[in-house]
Amino acid sequence: MEIVALVNSNYNNYNELNKNKKTSSKESDNKNDKKFSSTNDLSKYLRENFSSVKNGAVAISGKYLHECLKDDEKQKKLFENLETADQVFENAEKGKNVRVKIDSDGNMTVESSKTTVTFNESKRARQLAAAKTVKDVQALLNLLQNDLSECEEGLKNNWCDAEEVKKVKAMIERAKQKMSEVQKNEGENNSAEENFSTFDIII
Fold first, then answer.
1. How confident is the model at residue 35 (pLDDT cuts 50, 70, 90)?
2. Do residue 77 and residue 125 come from a single domain?
3. 102, 153: one domain
4. 56: which DSSP letter?
5. 54 and 134, same domain (yes or no)
6. Cβ-based neighbour number of residue 108 at 10 Å
7. Helix orientation angle between 134-156 and 121-130, rounded to the nearest 10 degrees
8. Together in a domain, 182 and 94
9. Are 10 and 103 in contact (CB under 8 A)?
């Protein structure tokens, strides 16, 4: 499983979400009248009122958080940014990981990454070609079963498409065929060794 397509967007340069932002119950409560005695008090309020903060996906500068205690405009900006962050998380595509950072100047950056699962078909093919014993092939089959589980989970979570699962299943069938061949060869070799030993005893 690998993480790809990291995208950074500074939401101070974008107004789309703010333009379309619906009036929420949080806004009607007039948060800007809130007064907090400490950053711990403010942090507790943020966790209780913003899902993005509650989920631990937002990192806020301690310096900026402290300034919000005595500056109503900065506090207002913080609340507006977090309302936007909540919308970002709500609208995030399934399979995307989103992280929000608010720096010491109150600027918000959203980092979005897409999780994908891919099957390394060429690597497993080389391992299959190199497998010479039953033990080798069995070890590879165990790896392929893990690959299959990851790809099936990835398909369920929209991290890959059905083609990846199909590739793993095809490789498993090739490995099973190789297992039959190796078992047959090892059986013939064992039989030849037994016959040779019997011949020695007769002589």
1. confident
2. no
3. no
4. T
5. no
6. 22
7. 170
8. no
9. no
Task: Please give the structure tokens belonging to residue 28.
Answer: 């009607």
With vertex at residue 10, the alpha carbon angle to CA 5 and CA 13, rounded to the nearest 5 degrees, is 130
* Helix, strand, coil fractions of the chain, as percent rounded to 5: 65, 15, 25
- CB contact at 8 A, 17 and 87: yes
> Dihedral (C-alpha) 32, 34, 37, 42: value to the nearest 10 degrees?
-70
The contacts of residue 89 (CB under 8 Å, 6+ apart) are 51, 52, 55, 57, 98
**CA separation for the pair 81, 70 (Å, rounded):** 18
Helix (H, G, I), strand (E, B) or coil at 7: strand
As a whole number of angstroms, the distance between CA 33 and CA 36 comes to: 10
Buried b (16+ CB within 10 A) or exposed e, 135-167: ebbeebbeebeebbebbbebbeeebbeeebbeb
Answer with the residue of higher pLDDT: 16 or 88. Answer: 88
What is the reported pLDDT for 7?
A: 41
What's the pLDDT at 11?
43
Of 22-26, 113-117, 135-139, the least confident: 22-26
